Amino acid sequence: MKVTTVGLDLAKNVFQVHGVTHEGHVVFNKPLRRAQLLAFFERLDPCLIGMEACSASHHWARELSKFGHEVRLIPPIYVKPYVKRGKSDAVDAEAICEAVTRPTMRFVQVKSVEQQAMLSLHRTRELVVRQRTQLVNMLRGLLAEFGITLPQGLEKATGFAREVLDGSAPDIPEIGQDVIRVLCRQLLSTDYLVRWHDLRLQAVARADHRMKLLQTIPGVGPVTASAIVATIGSGRQFRNGREFAAWLGLTPRNNSSGGKERLGRITKMGDQYLRKLLVVGMTSRAIQVKVRPDKGDPWLRQLLERKPFRLATIAMANKTARIIWAVLTREEAWTPRPA
Question: Which of 88, 124, 256, 266 has the most CB within a 10 Å radius?
Fold first, then answer.
């Protein structure tokens, strides 16, 4: 019997494969060791392979595609309804095999090694930014216990750290001074790592054509542009800008029934990192408009006059997401419409 569809449940060492024919008859449902996986699919005739989208799924999708197979990645949340009962590798592989054949199923685009490398740069940057924030908070908290207040702002904290390492120690016991020196040294080292990541992202954004196009959009800088291209590539997997905004979780949650339309808060589904970058960028734009209304976008100025600040920034992020999709798919720079 010829296998036409395979559900592959990924793991670290032991994988589960579930194969069926065109009529739906089960041909195999068995575990495979990691070393056996590629050899197994190399012997198999080209077929449709479904996998849950995860950190390692893009690697395996690229490897299995070399054998002529059609590989589709499914968000795990869309596989769960096809799990019949219980939790095991065999049940999960069967559910994946069933879900991948659904005509209305939504799939995740397979990322290239270049996209994954770029995303690794973003993930490490996000890590060191969190560590830097933790160090500043710890430094400020310890100094407050001795009655020393550290002004708000990152520049104030790094400036204080440089002064301490230059010999200007606070008037506290020697043990406390040693602890403060260690924190200051670690803070400056972490701040250097953040700046290195920013410079690396800026260099990549200057060299990539699509990232340069995205940076023509107000509120989109090198970090946001590189993250978007690394995550969605050309953006053609989305049919329109509204679908991209919905994927980011920037559209209202629909709870309609009986012909009555009820729209709630945004869904916050999809990529949390991209959504955060867009909201932060639009928050910066909104602050600029409030400070300098004469130089801001008239539409944005009117929106801030009518709506609460946070609601307005979310609406701006929604609109920017649609503009991003249009810029990527049309491969044209953003041009503002005349007022």
Answer: 266
